């Protein structure tokens, strides 16, 4: 298939999204899971920045890519490929599969994906702010579940509150023959299709919409993302071939596509309502309320809901492990789901000169606001020349080698935006005989990236383009901000014609002044003050998370605080001084008078540091939150600061539980010394244990009963006279 060129075209497209892409073609002798696993594991070990894996091919037949099988029912799963570090079931990379039985089907899916990212509104301006929710309350044995529709009503309300213009629903009951309704709604255009109910590899049964019904769709390039939280709907190794998810993904032709652009669902035939509900709700909560819109992370957020809601289902074979295996993605796992109609980028750029290749791109939203953290990819044909993220001012800058290049293609990417494209012409500067060819970083400790709060030295590569010698001179280098000293003199030696030299810039300090602008711009001028080059020093963006690691904080005690620092970047912050101060009443921070704590914070590290402070906590209440300021300094310059909180939680069962956000405290009969302590008296109702006057409610899976309360109860400010008991947590 690589020879067909489809994979290479798709790889080039992913480069425009800022990805470094490697294509691995397997031979017939390598078609087993161990070989595929070895490729992925080795790549991850060589480059821990690996984020996404995309498998292309079905589990058998044309372009075979094998998969794992999990559990007693041999459920097909690609998730085991992602278990690269440790012995847990949490993915270390995100994985998806484009399951195809022909090269033509591959072309269809890749064209769908590219069009979804680049031109989603080409045929309809409004379809992405509409959604379809399908649900069925059905079981072949009593009791009949009710929460598939409840979950779906919740999602409908969430999407409408988010800003969707319409959210159509097709529910069973009353509708069983759902295909005509579902087909019409999808054909009119919806960005999301969500299902909860009853199904298998053929598709959804209540209401009915099967793989065979995909051929009846006529939605063209309006290809939604399908999320199907129902048994077996994504069993891409099933004898039903194509299964429902494969039919959705492969639907249509290269000129008249149909179906969807991606599909999430489980392969197992006997998933449980209560767990599917949680995955459904948690995934959409992450997308709608927390901006997690790439499919891989969004699915993981959904699965992680089980860790929160069912913390005790953590043994081998239990719910957490099971659902982390059987839910898989068909399609590109890095696809960013459009929630509502996406925004569009506008671009401004400088005049790029051939003498320095300095590019300064600014991206704005449709309202003219700067777009921070957009991923910029600068391409020459299919070659990725430069990539990075924009500052809070919406700027990405860098020096690019532009020899023999006449035009650059600039792409901007961010969730909630259509991929933007901008062309920049290279202006030939024939009046300048010197050319800046790039810089080499010589940071303290030999680190490969420039970091805030660190000293670094630079080697500037300067070429003489002419055929005659360029005589030596003293040049000035002036930085715009964030560098000390901001101005310095560098010596440029004689340079023979067509030759290059390295010019040293020694011991500059990268100041973290709070702005954290990761593009430091310097202008080099000659001895006459004439501009030579614009030089951009890219500084690794700050990505630190600091929190207390103490679990012994109690009222009226003194602790020696330990902090945990997570560094999520390639930056190295060696020799950093940690400074702690209090921002809350009821606590005093005392320096122990010993030598300051100097921390070496390595790239991509997670370390604990024992500070040289004591924290005296007054007689504050349990449940109190004490706020501190932590600063990291270098050479008495603060390059990072963050407020961190210390929670005063109960240390044993003899104190009340901390208050909720509403303000409720929880007291039990073991909370000695508190006047709110209740008296405990057990009244037995179960006749098996000598009780009487009780009513037994036999609740099966997803069952519930409403019970009248003999008196009104006030809870969170509202009065209740009825309560619902449910078997699955609702």
Automatic annotation (TrEMBL):
GO terms for biological process: proteolysis. It holds the Pfam family Peptidase_C25. Residues 7-337 form the Gingipain domain. InterPro entries: Caspase-like_dom_sf, Gingipain, Gingipain_N_sf. GO terms for molecular function: cysteine-type peptidase activity. The keyword Cell membrane does not apply. Keywords: Signal. This is Gingipain domain-containing protein. It comes from marine metagenome.
